[in-house]
Amino acid sequence: MSTAVVVEAPGRHRLVPHEPRQPEAGEALVRVHASGICGSDRELYQGNRPEGYVRYPLTPGHEWSGTVEAVGAGVPSTLVGRKVVGEGFRNCQVCDRCHAGETTLCTAGYEETGFTQPGAMATTLTLPARLLHVLPDDCDLTAAALLEPAACIAAAALKANARPGERVAVVGTGTLGMFAVQFLKAGSPAELLVVGTRPDRAGMSRDFGATDFRTKDAEKGALPDDFDVVIETAGSADAARTAAALLRRGGRLVLTGIPAPGADGLDPTDLVVRQLEVHTVFGAPPDAWAHTVRVFGAGLLDPLPLVTHELPLAEFPHAIELVGSGDPKVGKVLLRPSLP
């Protein structure tokens, strides 16, 4: 039976019968293979999502992979049967920022699959076909379900513009941090340092290409300060300060984590005197998605080792608990609609 998770309000959800919505003009109907859960889904369920960035009731799920089952008028029929992932931001396509390709800055307001529009924690998902990115026919759809967070890091990697032979670093060892290691490794760095708080991530960091691993708390005063590029993925003000301190004068910093509101930030005097170049990322524009799919298709991105749990939709509350448990054995948690 087709089912969907519906979060009625913070802390309240139901598993309901799901009726696939047939695609209208410009749309595609996708059979969902897997939907990932991240911290923002936990915020959604707990009611901590900022005002304007969620609309209840809704079906969550912004990280997903699947196969196109049907298309509406104006959509190429060759899409049917193809494996796909899809952008989350429902941009307007006509504002100044959209025309510049900066769709995550769309001035028409925030709309995103799984937060204000129906998401992928359901048997099927119907969405604008223009948001789809076609995957190789032989790809692993379970691995592909992680391409949304990978695309966010691709956006960071593109902004960092790390050149071959540069010394690069990543702060944070979660899913985003491990993707940052893989993207930076693909650029042939001279050194690739990972800094985090979890010693158990040292092995995976090195497997993905890190040349050194430091535990931040155990190395106070001992971290280097001469790196060309640093990508921060941990989502805390302390991590942002650690990342900035790793840089040489004139170095490039990209922040992808979102600390709690009102957190003490970077020292503007330090930024100016050291002439640091600071970029930020929130979501992924189309060029970052296209880059991610290319890198994934080329075998340079391996998301599968990050997956530790695959659960049926009925296990949604347990999945949310796992994500917030802090258990080092919990990596990426996926919901699989086809599982009983």
From TrEMBL:
Enzyme Commission code: 1.1.1.329
Keyword flag Transmembrane helix: no
UniProt cross-references to SMART domains, sorted A to Z: PKS_ER
UniProt catalytic activity: 2-deoxy-scyllo-inosamine + NAD(+) = 3-amino-2,3-dideoxy-scyllo-inosose + NADH + H(+); 2-deoxy-scyllo-inosamine + NADP(+) = 3-amino-2,3-dideoxy-scyllo-inosose + NADPH + H(+)
Residues in Enoyl reductase (ER) domain copies: 11-335
Keywords, comma-separated and alphabetical: Metal-binding, Oxidoreductase, Zinc
Pfam family, one: ADH_zinc_N
Cofactor(s) in the UniProt record: Zn(2+)
Signal peptide annotation: none
GO molecular function list: oxidoreductase activity; zinc ion binding
Pathway involvement of the protein, from the record: Metabolic intermediate biosynthesis; 2-deoxystreptamine biosynthesis; 2-deoxystreptamine from D-glucose 6-phosphate: step 3/4
InterPro entries: ADH-like_C, ADH-like_N, ADH_Zn_CS, ER, GroES-like_sf, NAD(P)-bd_dom_sf, Zn_alcohol_dh
Cited function: Catalyzes the oxidation of 2-deoxy-scyllo-inosamine (DOIA) with NAD(+) or NADP(+), forming 3-amino-2,3-dideoxy-scyllo-inosose (amino-DOI).
Protein family (similarity comment): Belongs to the zinc-containing alcohol dehydrogenase family. DOIA dehydrogenase subfamily.
Record's protein name: 2-deoxy-scyllo-inosamine dehydrogenase
